[in-house]
Amino acid sequence: MGDVAMTVPVIRALTEQHPNCKVTILSKPFLKPLFKDIPNVSFFAAEVKGKHKSIQGLYQLFKDLKELKITHVADFHNVLRSKILRRFFSFTKVSIAKIDKGRAEKRALTRESNKVFKQLKTSHERYADVLKSLGFEINITQPKPLDKETLSKKTIELTGDKKNSWIGIAPFAAFEGKVYPIKLMKEVITELSKKHTVLLFGGGKKESNILTKLEETYNNTINIAGKLSFQEELVLISHLDLMLSMDSGNAHLAAMQQIKTVTLWGVTHPYAGFAPYNQPQDYCLLPDLKKYPKIPCSIYGNSIFEGYENVMESISPKTVVEKINTILS
Prior knowledge:
- The protein is of the alpha/beta class.
- It contains 11 helices and 10 strands.
């Protein structure tokens, strides 16, 4: 989801700077709300567990897409399914370009010894490069301000009227190496909830249970998980004053809507190119790199070097709270 959310500012720039270009987004059905209301953009749902499953299903998907009279294919993902689709399109007159994920330089960045520690291209830049190779040059550095959609009645019943700053907190990530210890997050919530409203975001039954306990423990703290549709959550995020997230999808859902986004990093690092869109570098709060010089251990957080299991404990709750209060003030 985070990867797809990172494409949104790039697609906006494409449609703004090439207004005669019609764009069809191909992705899984539940991600359709990400592209809602972007001019000249339509969404085509890939039913990868249904009729588009298997080689035969992908060929059917190709035939369905061909009916749209597509002239250019921009493969932002470059995985097995998209490679097969590209192969089908290669037998037509369609122009095709694929993302360069920079795998070699990412391996150099994440290896344990002889590490090449430098900023790599961001995912947003890599997406823009794909479009450039198709002849669509775009500038992604100056996004236009976005309008906010009105909160639904259901959302307002959950949050109440906005009487102070709304801070979203998304305390989970796909891998433990990217999750801020809950005991430290409780300290953050304790301080922030004294003068702000804290809205907790997450998914899954286990996560929701944790967030419910936090909601019951702290004042001015509301658990959002599982209570709104994805579209309603996106609209709610657009009304936040700030999002605090791990290196995970919620950071990108906030940043794509131009919400100030503070991220906490563990065994991964912004140099890999996955920092939230258009956020100041100092909004990324990192572990003590003098104590843990081998960070990043991996691109996605799924691998951890020995002795690096608790790197996030070197980010103090006080540092997090002070950064957020400074930004909001």
